Amino acid sequence: MTRFLTREAAIRWAPLLVLIALVILFTAINPDFFAQRNFARIAIAAAPALMVAIGVTFIIVMGSIDLSMEGAVSLTAVLFCFAFLWLGGTLAAGGWLAIPLALIVGGLIGLINGLVHVKLRIPSFMASLAMGFVGTGAAVLITGGDIVRIEDDTFRALLTWRIAGFPLMVYVVVILAFLAWFIQNHTTLGRNFYAVGGGEELAHASGLNVRRVRITGFVLAGVFYAIAGMLQVAKLGQAESVTGANFMFISITSVVVGGVALWGGIGGVWNTVVGVLIVNVINNGMVVIGLPDYVQDGMLGLLVILAVVLSTDRRNISFVK
Amino acid sequence: MSTFIKDFVEREKINRRNFLFASAAGLTATAVPGILGRGAAFADAGGWSLAWSYRDRASAYWNAIVSGGEAYVESLGLTKEDMTNLINEGSSEKSLADIKAFLAKNAGKGAIASDPNDSPNARPVVEAVRDAGGYVSTIWNKTDDLHPWDIGDNYVAHLSWSGEKPSEDAARLLFEKMGGEGGVVHLGGIPANIPAVERLNGLKNALKDFPNIELLDEQSADWDTNKAAELMSSYLTRYGDKIKGVHCANDNMAYGVIEALKAEGITGMPITAFDGNPEAVDLVMKGELLATVFTNPHWGGGIALALAHQAAIGAFKPSEEPNEHREFYGPSILVTQADAEEFKKTYLDATPTYDWTDRWGLSAGGIVYK
Amino acid sequence: MDIQRLKPHFPWITLLVLVIFVGLNDPNFLKPANLLSLAGDIVPLFIMALGLTFAIYIGGIDLSAQSMANMITVVASVYLASLGIWVALLCVAIGFALGMLSGFITTRLFVPSFISTLAVGGLCFSMAQWLSGNRALNMDAAERDALFGWMIGRTGIIPNELFLAVALLAICLFIERRTTLGRALKAVGAGELAAAASGVNVARFKMLAFAISGALAAVAGLLFAVKLSGGAPTIANGFLLPAIVAVLVGGTPLTGGVGGVLNTAIGTLIVAVIRASMLYFGVEATQQQMVFGLVLIAAIALTMDRSKLRTVK
Amino acid sequence: MYELKAVDKKFPGVHALKAVDFQVKRGEIVGLVGENGAGKSTLMKVIYGAYQPDGGTITIDGKTVRFQNPRQAMEKGIGMVFQEQSLISNLTVMENIFLGYEAQFVRLGVINWKAMAEAARKQLAKVKLDIDPATVTASLSFAQRQLVELAKVLTLEERVDGDLVILLDEPTSVLAEDEVKMLFRIVRDLTARASFIFVSHRMDEVMELSDRIYVMKDGAVVDVVNRGGATVEQIQHKMVGRNVDREYYREQRQKPYDDSRQLVKLEDVGLPGRISDISLTLHPGEVLCLVGTEGSGREAILRTIYGMRTPVTGHVTMKGARIERFTPQAAVAKGVGYVPRERKVEGIVAGMNVYENMTLSQMGHFSNAGVLRVGEERKLARDWIGKLSIKAHSEYADCGNLSGGNQQKVVLAKWRSGGSDIMLLDHPTRGLDIGAKEDVYEMIRDMCDDGVGVILVADTLEEAIGLSHTIIVLKDGRIQKRFDCEPGKKPSLYDLLHAMI
């Protein structure tokens, strides 16, 4: 029995152990890696990515998938910038109103996504993929392909103002990650995600409004994408129709690397945090140890497989797809 | 910025019906613009349909290219809607398929300007145009063994911008600013893209004359702002204070580099970029960017289409032109803080009007192969 | 009841309606030569989608297909001179082997195919960059024409690619309908546990599905390299999502066991027609992507037979 | 107090319920029996709100009600304990109990876990289950899960003002004998709180527990029997429309097996944590029955023989050859056939048609170099559809749409047509109606006549006794006792139970 427990614990902590192992590995090769300043750099890179990954975590826990993040992030970032500038261009002068607005837009994108998926009975993979095209397309339509810049120093303080060596946005993200964890563990909605992911038909038979839970999940994910969009603006000082590009595969990879099962019901926000850190540590570390850039994609692939293999409980699954 | 919104509102007004339909019902959406749109009136184009095939509408660079094409179309007395946009989304396969579909639709009577996206794609594109009887000029990407004069009159011209020389000039400026010593890092475009390769070569050329400058690292950030920001942070960890200057293969990546440095509180690091986009020029004026290279995409976009169309209507016969008129470099202007304001006034605030029949007026000479 | 019986026919009805729709707007579109050339141009994408169908048919996905094709264009360009016609064999063998690797990681190491194929794709991309030295490569045109010219020519008004596509489709259809492999894949897609309990070597067949997907991605890459007479590590970019879309629009959902290669053929043609319709209806440049997304939702909603899906995830 | 009057339900082509009258009084346990397809499940779905009747009325305490969905029914005090395990295994016990009704523990959107645990403990006490409500459900035994499900339904008691009606759909199918006894005790105790509708194929259990029994046939209630008002045989007669006599298990067809040859021999086979020191021998023509509680190792033995598990100790010999590589493929090649318990998950592939299912295990026989001879496959399927009178419109029928009995026949035909002579049957009659059960028994005897050896895990002890030549009783993964069961000298239920516990 004790052996069983330690094995379970090992699997549970595997992602974290992988993360620590990677940090030790990179530090051993280049001690510069292990520096507070570098950790701050990794944290900045990971901040928007974490918000996207947390958003999609809720969906994956439900056993669905959401591929609309690129479009959603781009569209919310662009709309946020327009609204921010239109409202005065500074946080003080009413620009802050753009924040709730962007959140609402994110939620709306999620809502449409959820409605298309649930009401038209289109599997989420396809519904969200198509919605992603629509989101990016809308961003192109609105910007006409141009860059929208935000110069407001107060808003940019998210990046430039440091507390204990870490920029403000890192703290914001930590707080939001806790919020997400709280939603996951201490609210009905969060627990219902697990019920749907654990057995949709059973949850339905228990009187759970599965359709509503699904749609709400997509709305919540959309809100987190909007947060990611705004952080991306804070980080780069600009938005354009490709602001959300490259988030799709990397966020889902992070979620799975952290130990969230793609078939639903297993893992959560905590796993995703670790997963995002693993992926960003790898990305940063490969440059820091001086790996030639043409091997980086292959190396990332190998490390990801290694991490997933270590954190999968092979005894409890009969097959994967 | 508000001009974008204004443009958008205006655009939306024109297309409101399309837009509403598009949002409401997917399938019908495609039908509406065609059915409600104007009938094709190509009388002024001499019976030829005009098209620009390019990557996407998500960057200032391509927007400027397109605006040049549209300016040419408008100079014919047509509206800019008369130029067809063939967007390949970075896919060579779609690029080729779209061009063939365009030719088929117009029974071969198409005058096309195209960036083939990847250099090997240039050959099938020009061959397809030739076989259909259309006229094409290409920009940027083509393989070295492909020449317009080997294909015939239908492949009117290839226009490129020598990345090497301007990039070298920018690098020299950078090294001088660095005081002739210290480390420099380069952020490159998508590997194997010709401009990416050329711009790196320019940097390497300049290095030969600056023995105390060390190229610390050169990696790809895929032309992307976000990737550049992350790559720059990683450079900072690896090389730290050794980095005294940054050489970027385009403006978008320079934005990312500036933000990555801003996050660290590093100011005054000399950075050079490429493309001369409006935002970059603003940054040059503010001193955040040491220099960028303007390639006048507006003119390039206009003249590439103009060449194809004028050859099509017989305004000139390509085969009678010398080779340096069939393969030539576009202009490159190094924009520094000293001349940025002047530059902005001339090229960005007011778009200069070009005489599109002065076909090689701004040419920087024939393309030379090494 | 009638709707139920019509459902399996929705994909091609959708295709037909789309074609007629575009044709009404511009009768030129309906010329046989035009339609054939449209079909011919989509062939590389179709071949990749054909391979993906096998991965999706068993309920997985193959995200390595695009990087595979990229790498193969480089391999083909590099080795055409030294290997001659045998380079084709090399390409297919590499695709098959790397697909097998994805399958192995998925079935033996229990890494979901979404991740395993993405990772193998990363490997392919690295190899392509290394092999090409990060440059665009070109093939010797004479040698290409001599050895592979038959692939890209034209017989009458029919593009030769179409013959290749039809031949591959026929082979795949035969595999799907008439071989133990096809039957086993159907069983794995529809009920993996039952297939295992019937003594079917599920792991082997799943690996084969990914291997076929890899091999066909390689064929797509080879054809593309021949067509373009060269290769580069990013030249096939932009293939993956349209290929996945083609499979899905054809009516093979990601849940497995439903649909098939014939559906993919129709799905690819639907994608081709939607693309062409942008041109024929003159959809504005900045609207194209959005319209594509919306049409996609409509098309999937129309073509997918959801009656066999118990839960929609 | 709960009453259905002349309830009608029609589906395209089927008149599923024909003017059914049904009544449940306060504190009563009502049995509901009938063959598969008699309309039981439709009736249950009408009762708990999954279906809306086309005609007739439903009244509770005289008031007419109409349910749009199960939730509305629950709000009127009608709860359902499902046949399939309906707890979500990755959630905790308390979350499962209050799934869909968390609101009572939520303040400002935040769940008060302590309060929920407290309330869950109260519910668990009703079913006398003493476990931590924060336990993850996956770690419970089947019996415990069944009780948790019951506890979950009993939360209605606090939520609903009126009386409770609880449907129990085959609650005993996964339980062992003693667990069934315990469940019945609890149900009887609970009649103070609720009325029950008890649905089961196990006639003896229905007779034991119910106050009244509704017998359904062809969508209509054919009789209502009071406790002690009829014998098992009489009720079965009403259900089937003919006599079910003591020849039920085809004992007259049981012939001595051929002990000169050995089909399968297990020697000291062990799988850590599951079975240890298992030795047994199977002969041609023999029905060897494994008897034991859930988790006693019956399934592990079947799966070891079938090659799905590799034993850590001991060895397995089949037809004289020692097995070295344990894979289902190798076992199938040796002539082993496996009829798994989870028919819908492991037995048939829904979405594939009859012939595809039948040849799935033997595609090698119907192919040349990987190319299938579909014509032969179809002929085979047609033959067996005729031979076993499988009710399918043709060999193209989707197996997912066949009834349970016909699905099972397809599974059996799959192995028999492939010439399997070592058959492993795990609950082959589970969920089948009497007619279909008899067909299966008949097939088992046929197989024995053909020299097939059968290892059976039976649905009930009676079935085990009735069918087998040999019974091996297992407990905690070890063999407790071996009985020879020649006709006339069969062990009694008591003998077996004594060895099991």
Textual characterization of the structure:
- The complex is a heterotetramer of chains A (321), B (370), C (313) and D (501).
- The mean pLDDT of chain A is 91.
- Chain A has 13 helices and 4 strands.
- Chain A has helices at residues 2-29, 36-61, 69-86, 98-119, 124-143, 153-160, 168-186, 188-198, 200-205, 210-236, 247-257, 269-288, 293-310; strands at 148-149, 162-163, 166-167, 238-239.
- In chain A, a hairpin with a 2-residue loop joins strand 2 (162-163) and strand 3 (166-167).
- The radius of gyration of chain A is 20 Å and the shape is globular.
- Chain A has a domain at 37-244.
- By secondary structure, chain B is of the alpha/beta class.
- Chain B has helices at 2-14, 16-24, 26-36, 60-75, 92-105, 122-132, 148-151, 164-177, 194-207, 225-239, 251-264, 278-286, 297-312, 323-326, 337-349; strands at 49-54, 83-87, 110-114, 135-139, 155-160, 182-188, 213-220, 243-248, 271-272, 291-294, 327-329, 333-336.
- In chain B, the strands form 3 sheets. Chain B has a 6-stranded parallel beta sheet with strand order 2-1-3-4-5-11, sandwiched between helices. A 4-stranded parallel beta sheet of chain B has the order 7-6-8-9, sandwiched between helices.
- The model of chain B is unreliable at 1-43 (pLDDT under 50).
- Chain C is built from 15 helices and 4 strands.
- By secondary structure, chain C is an all-alpha fold.
- Chain C starts with a helix and ends in a 10-residue tail after the last helix.
- In chain D, helix 4 crosses helix 5 (142-154) and helix 15 (404-417) runs parallel beside helix 16.
- Chain D contains 18 helices and 24 strands.
- Chain D folds into 2 domains: 2-240, P-loop containing nucleotide triphosphate hydrolases (Rossmann fold, 3-Layer(aba) Sandwich); 251-500, P-loop containing nucleotide triphosphate hydrolases (Rossmann fold).
- The two termini of chain D are 41 Å apart.
- The model of chain D has no long low-confidence stretch (mean pLDDT 86).
- Chain D has 501 residues and is α/β, with parallel strands linked by helices.
- At the A-C interface, helix 4, helix 5, helix 11 and helix 13 of A face helix 6, helix 7, helix 11, helix 13 and helix 15 of C.
In terms of structural class, how would the helical and strand content of chain B be classed?
A: alpha/beta
Q: How much is the radius of gyration of chain C in Å?
A: 19 Å
Mean pLDDT of chain B equals 86
Low-pLDDT windows of residues of chain B = 1-43
Taking the sheet with the most strands of chain B, its summary is: 6 strands, parallel
- What's the CATH topology name of the largest domain in chain B? Rossmann fold
Query: Mean pLDDT score of chain C, rounded?
Result: 90
